[in-house]
Amino acid sequence: MRFSLLLCLLSFFLACSSDRRGQPETRTSFRYNQHNPITSLDPAFARTQSNIWAVDALFNGLVQLDDSLHVRPCIAKSWEISPDGRTYRFFLRNDVFFHDDPSFPSGKGRAATASDVVFSFERLLDASWPKPGSWIFKDRIAEDSAFVAVNDTVFELRLKESFQPMLQILTMHYASIVPQEAVTFYGRDFRRHPVGTGPFRFKIWAENQALVVVKNERYFERDKNGTPLPYLDAVKTSLITDRKTAFLEFKQGNLDYFYGLESSYIHELLTPEGNLQTALAQTIQYVKNPYLNTEYLGIRLDSAGLKVLQTKKIRQALNFGFDRALMLRTLRNGVGKPAKSGFAAAGLPSYNETAAPGYTYDPGKAAKLLAEAGFPNGKGVPEIALLCNQDYVDLATFIARQWEDLGLRVTIELTETSLLRERMRNRQAPFFRASWIADYPDAESFYTCFYSKNGAPPNYTAFRNEAFDKLYDAALQEIDVKKRYELYHAMDRILIDEAPVVFLFYDETAQFSRKGITGLPGNAINLLSLKKVRK
User: Domains (ranges, CATH) in the chain?
Assistant: First the structure.
């Protein structure tokens, strides 16, 4: 009842605030749910999916990603990178305006300039108010004059040394541009009073209940036909924490979009083969997209690890010893792709199964490797404990049962998620279930998990390999994209051979929308960008 009353209130606000007065029949509102809370509308704190989706509607960065994960212009219409890879010069549009807000003189939003970029980036690094987004520049920018406004429409970013993924990093929402006036005016309460340049402007946020944003009539982007974006007049985000309840809201037509799967309702949506249930096909659309998330079992390779798993052939046997495709069909209704080409996830521009062929289900080969390691039919291998959280116990059980056919005994030690992560950080997890989601769409974000100079996180396996490190260092300096991808594939071949992890699957997103919704994005970073959506 409380939620229904709130939606009525929000609808009232929308009706009163639309700039298209006299045309209520043309207004369109897109409705979706977030099961995790939105904790801040400040892009400097956009570290969770729920925050990122909300911030994406309100703010822009210098650059952005298309659905193929290629970097495209945004506030910056073009850019140049110096031959040494250390200086990035961005040329800004002059028709980008901040949203109208009381923090500006007369309440009118002004044009965004290069000085706003300098302010936004320096704000991320303000030690007096630590922000989770500060890491994007840590140890990478020049010590002096890292951010420079050459003039109102030219901004320079200067690095300490070449770091090729920097352009991709700048597409992250941490790098959104904010106005100094609003940040000063609202202080730390900027989280509740966001002022950006995005396709939608803030209207109301009832924390833990709902968020409403409305069309920015002065937005600068247009579609290929010259029509101004966005098409929608408003976006309403409900914050129902229970997925089953949110699913029922979607079934009843109260939500336009629904994502994610859970055992309590997965079979109502999908057949065992992974297709949309026939009864829903008249009213619902279903799309799967790659997601830059690799699921794996990590193996500690130092003194804190299990002695038996220090033998490479046993680690390889574990990788050959279970059927990834059957696991995904049986337990995830076909959502996900077997991880058979290294650690960097499918969906990345650099992904190439041919260049880095990995593990497939081959119990004969697994048995042969165990015998070569001195453990025929698994005899002599002590019982192995796998640390796992509740959400993945069904997958772990499936794998452990298939390993039993090889003579290997694996017990599942159920561990609360936060405790599992703590044990991974503190060298107390010899064999553990984990996932790695890319922070930005470059394979370097995955390979950093195995760079020997990194501790835990992200190198939870304590992997050390001199050849891998040399390739990693070279890739960061390589300007030629094709050559850099070749270095990435060489790194994956090392990981496949050394097997510091058991490769499980590359994740996919399951997205459901009502018929009549068009323009939904299909990207591997799982970003719900709504500026091109029509209803």
Answer: 1-46+198-256+517-535 (3.40.190), 60-196 (3.90.76.10), 291-509 (3.10.105.10)
